Amino acid sequence: MRRFLPCVLTAVCLAVVSSASAQTEPPPDPLADWVDACYATKPDIQALLEHNALIISEDALTENPSGTWSLNVQPFTQYVRPAEPSPYVLDLCPQARFYGQPQVIKIDAHASDVTRRSAVQVGPDLVLTTWHNLFAPSQPGWYKVVFGLHARNVGGECIPPDFENIPASQVYDVEAVVADGWPLDMLLLRLDRVVSDHYPRVRRSGRGWPGDAMTGIGHPQRLAAKVDRAAKAGPTTIEEDREWLGVKNVNLLPDSSGSMVYNRSQRILETVAKQGGGPTLEWLPAQGCLMFGHREGFTGLNASLRYFAEHIPAFELVVDSLDPVFHVVPLGGGIDPTHVRTVKAPLSAAGPIDYQIVPPAPPAPGQPSLSIVVGGPLTGTLAPGTQLDVLETASIHGASCGVHELSYEVRDLTNGFVDHARQVFEIGIREFTVAPLARWRIRDLAAPFEDETQYTVSNPRPTPVVVRATASQNWLKFNGVEPGSGDPPPSVDLLVEAYGSTVLTVGIAAWAESLPYTPPGGAPHQASVAFEVAPGDPCPTVGGTLTAEIQFEFGSESFNGPGGLPILSSSEGGTLVEVDVNETFCIDDVNLGVFTSGVLSDRIKARLTSPLEIRRLVWDRGILAPPGPLRGVLDDEGALHPFESLDVFDDTQGGGTWRFRVTDVGLSGGLQGSLDSWNLDLRARHCP
């Protein structure tokens, strides 16, 4: 099951939000690419880099006599591309991105699987990664976790890590698997000792908000760590009862799994990356090497960490919950006015937490109202394990239609965090869907045009909506009512009740037989049906105009005859099958599709008889190259010619019963063949 969260999480609806909560910082300037960690000058990013790690096979590390560790790396000058039957190696151009930067040497099968797993510290001795079933949970001793593998800015110069002398203080053993986040594809690992008492705050409730500034930090296939600040949170979807956060423009290389994706606007670790987007490689023949080209932004993230946070100790003030309270109602409807949230200092906090509750601002005219009653002072201190309740009371009396958002702030003064407790009101929002929107293709010889298609218009909201359907051509008819040749294209208003649906039936008007015939290989007649909310509706609409395309190929049609029949012998009269063509027209061209099996073509005789009793021997024991059953289209102008030409049917009346007789002239106690299928492809012309 896949469903989308309400309107407020979509870009269309954000355009009509009348009151948005403030973010802790504005979105960053867009960056085109990852940068080395040494260029990350902001303190929050520098702090995050200290929590970034690499999970590595123990075979890729060697302990030096001095007690330091050496990581087995080599310069990145070649690209190994998977190919059948075996991988092959291509040289990189010296000016290619990441050329010459170190990469971990592959030791063996399991080393090659894990040396590209990034990780992030989420607890004193906990790291989180994305593992893709490549980590062996039963053998945690196979792996080590290395921190500090990022370039540093020393006196304005970018200094890479010393991979030959990694301090032992940066190398940790994996002691145990704390939690397997399947199906989230996350793995929480406990290390052999404490890394630090300071670590990023993880998402415990709520969700990333569209437009939040996001940062990706990790080891994107090559060492050392890279930072990207170009990303933004996008809409959220729910699939299989898991929430999936969309993130736009996180640039990651392949095998960047486990890299952190951090919400800078809310100062929360949202998730870890599932995999990299991958570069586009461009072969330069003149230089005989590969260049890294444009890279697609990475969007495939795991579900929110909120489903995993119960295993991670909290150190900060926790609001339960930061999920927005949604009110989706028609204009003039009612809501459940009360909601309670708790603000608590967790038992795992290092000490008392100072807090402040900032009430919502007074509503503007036409907006809902929100008031709060705090079960304690607005400012105070909570000891670990204590909490206070906040009673929220909302009212929409007199509020205009649209999407409104109201919130109040919960400030953790001890740790410097600000959370927004949101209520979102979608009042009178119109929305509709149309299915199917796939292009409708119709072929027909002549009137009456009996083929029709149906479009189901559905309303997923509590507000009734009037959807106007308008055709672009007047040879379409709606719900059986067809315009004349001089009338405007049809249009109809469809009332779709709350959470209901209605059907629009579209067909071809009878006068369309006066349209020009579609020439062989020519463009068919084109039309479309546009669905939109009828003009004059004062409330916002989700989705805008939806358009269904229609192609009408006039003057040609295919008729499928009965198939799946045994091919009888001459003594049995062969196999006779018929197809009725209930049209009135003159023939321009006839082609015959015949598909047999179990018998060679040199045993087949076949005859086609028109409604006017014109007979043609279309196949007479012909031999195909290579030999095989008769399978293909018999066409005077095609690759498979009939024994007698089919042009004798041209200019004759084509309506009525067509008969096709196929005979196995060599059947004598052997295997019997089958007429799997056959069809007539007819094209019309004006009668002489």
What report would you give on this structure?
The protein is built from 3 helices and 52 strands. 2% of the residues lie in helices and 44% in strands. It is mostly beta strands and 688 residues long. Strands 1, 2, 17, 18, 19, 20 and 21 form a 7-stranded antiparallel β-sheet that branches. It has a 6-stranded antiparallel barrel with strand order 3-10-11-16-15-12. The two termini are 58 Å apart. The relative contact order is 0.10. The chain has 4 domains: 2-14 and 24-309, Thrombin, subunit H, CATH 2.40.10.120; 315-427, Immunoglobulin-like (Sandwich), CATH 2.60.40.10; 431-554, Sandwich (Immunoglobulin-like), CATH 2.60.40; 558-685, Jelly Rolls (Sandwich), CATH 2.60.120. The model is unreliable at 1-32 and 107-113 (pLDDT under 50).
What's the helix and strand layout?
Layout: E1 2-4, H1 11-14, E2 35-36, H2 43-49, E3 52-57, E4 61-63, E5 69-71, E6 73-75, E7 78-81, E8 88-91, E9 102-104, H3 109-114, E10 117-123, E11 126-130, E12 143-147, E13 152-154, E14 157-159, E15 171-180, E16 186-191, E17 213-218, E18 226-239, E19 242-248, E20 260-263, E21 268-272, E22 279-284, E23 289-295, E24 318-320, E25 325-329, E26 338-344, E27 353-358, E28 369-374, E29 379-382, E30 387-395, E31 402-412, E32 417-427, E33 430-431, E34 433-435, E35 440-444, E36 452-458, E37 465-471, E38 476-478, E39 491-496, E40 501-508, E41 525-533, E42 541-542, E43 546-554, E44 556-561, E45 565-566, E46 575-581, E47 586-597, E48 604-609, E49 615-620, E50 631-634, E51 656-664, E52 674-685
Parallel strand pairs: 25-32, 33-42, 35-43
Antiparallel strand pairs: 1-18, 2-18, 3-10, 3-12, 4-5, 6-9, 7-8, 10-11, 11-16, 12-15, 13-14, 15-16, 17-18, 17-20, 18-19, 20-21, 22-23, 24-26, 26-30, 27-29, 27-31, 28-30, 31-32, 34-36, 36-40, 37-39, 37-41, 38-40, 41-43, 44-52, 45-52, 46-51, 47-50, 47-52, 48-49, 48-51
